[in-house]
Amino acid sequence: MYITVTDKGMAPHEYSKTCKCRGCQAVSKAKRRAALIAVPLAILVAGIVGIIAGPVLGGFTGVVASLLGYGVYSSLSPKSEVLHPDTNDPVGTIGKAQSHNDVVPQFLAVSPVKFVAMSLCTFGLYEIYWSYKNWQIIKDRDGSEIMPFWRAAFYPLWHYSLLTELNKSLVSRALSSGVYRGLLAASVLILNGMWRLPDPYWLVSFLTFLGFLPALLAMRRPEPTGVIQEQTRSFHPANLIAYLFGGPLFAFVALSSIGFFPSTAVVTGDAVWDRDIKYLREEEILGPEEKIVYFYSEGMWSIAEGGQFISADFVTSYYQDPDTGEISLDYVAFSDISDIDVTWAETFFDLTVVTITTSDDHQFLLWLSSEGGGDRKFVNAMTENWNRSRGPN
Q: For 267-390, CATH number?
């Protein structure tokens, strides 16, 4: 985006937040006004969630809302690609302002906040995209035979090499320490492997962006050559799609993992929130002294919609009629079960169905998610309790 200015002795040039001309200052003020809108909205969202679910969850939501809000604001900001001539030099001394075509882009640089927001909203896919674009630039610049796609696909293994290439192109040598680059690369590799942790600890795997931030900050520093790295801060439809769809989806997944919404997987009894335990006791679904061993709810927004659990002595299934709100309850002591039949889920999207037959020939069903093998843990614990209740054969 070129700014047409009337300042004496200046040619039209591209926007820069460090420029003191009237045009650039007007754009900077407009951006600050946009930020003043984004921040209160983030605080409002955090406050609402804080009132509903407590200060810890409210703070977490506030951080996410701030990143998403500022990410949208950053993506709509003007492009800033070339550091224009010194405003103290009269036109004719330096000549016309540099254009984008006069600059060979070295690396793809984005706003750190936008990078974090896109990384979260795309569940880490943006980090692969960013790595691919930079490896492609390196290949075109050097005329090498590297394969950017595969280096991006396995970016945790190639992150150290990418940081090294970046450091070579920076006059400031901000990433000159090999130990520092190694720590950044190791953090990306280790955090990527943490997705296998149980709820909610696996959420730390989304912090892989931390290994990219020092590089992004270094790329934003103006270079003594008068050229800064190519920056993509303009609006792209893909950014808007990520923010509008990926953002809420990430928030839902994160909140489900910490227990705000029903988990999509079978969980242990100590992972069930106290408010949910209180609800089950108030509705007389769970006994006063009964403790849950494994629990799964098929509810979308609340465990009140339906669920099943086992305790030391009972198997329980309940369901709330969406029209009347009435709760249907089936439960049986392990000692009164005559048969347990299991139809295992065949795909990730299927549910394992367990048919419980009681000693008086009554049957009821349990539905269990196969995510993380939780259905097998549930069934194994239930079978062990059942066998124990029957005593030695």
A: 2.30.29.30
